[in-house]
Amino acid sequence: MKYVCPVCGYVFDETKEGKSFGALPETWVCPWCGAAKMVFVPEGPVKQEKKAEAPVYMDEDLNPLSPGVLSALCSNLARGCEKQYKADESALFLQLAEYFASVAPADPDTGVEALAALIGDDLKSGYPSLHSAAIAEEDRGTQRICVWGEKVTNILNSLMIRYKTEGEAFLRNTQIWVCTVCGFVYVGNNPPELCPVCKVPAWKFEKVEGRGSV
Question: Does residue 45 have a pLDDT over 80?
Fold first, then answer.
């Protein structure tokens, strides 16, 4: 039997390893990307993508966005401008992000369980709906975004599982790295040689600074 990591594609082959996947400790993680054992899935036949019969569209109404969402949106736009060497535009979006962050009310429901639920919703319904719409419209760019985004969300889900299982010890005496291209998050003393999602080299990773001691 073979088990596959949904983040980086690493395959645990029970025959080659000489042990069953179930015999591995629950704290075992993917040797390539650090995903938790719990997120691995049995290998099966590759599903062929097909054009959706009924495309799923976003709500046409422009719903108001909260200051927190606007802050995150402007921050992402700033990073996008930075990658296109548009320093002035990037600086303006950062100013907007800081402003919206300063006026955003505190969210009373920001605990681990709430975050895990949001990530679970994205994996269960968000990405499948967006991906089916992109396939229906033959939008290859959005399809690629879905593939990368789903992998990154899978590693976030895995990290949440590990944190809930191991507690603060999970982050003790280690570092957190983020791929500046796709957003993949890696926990370890050094970033991986290649990003498991987008395959860029280690120097494309940034270390998360300003962490409190744990």
Answer: no
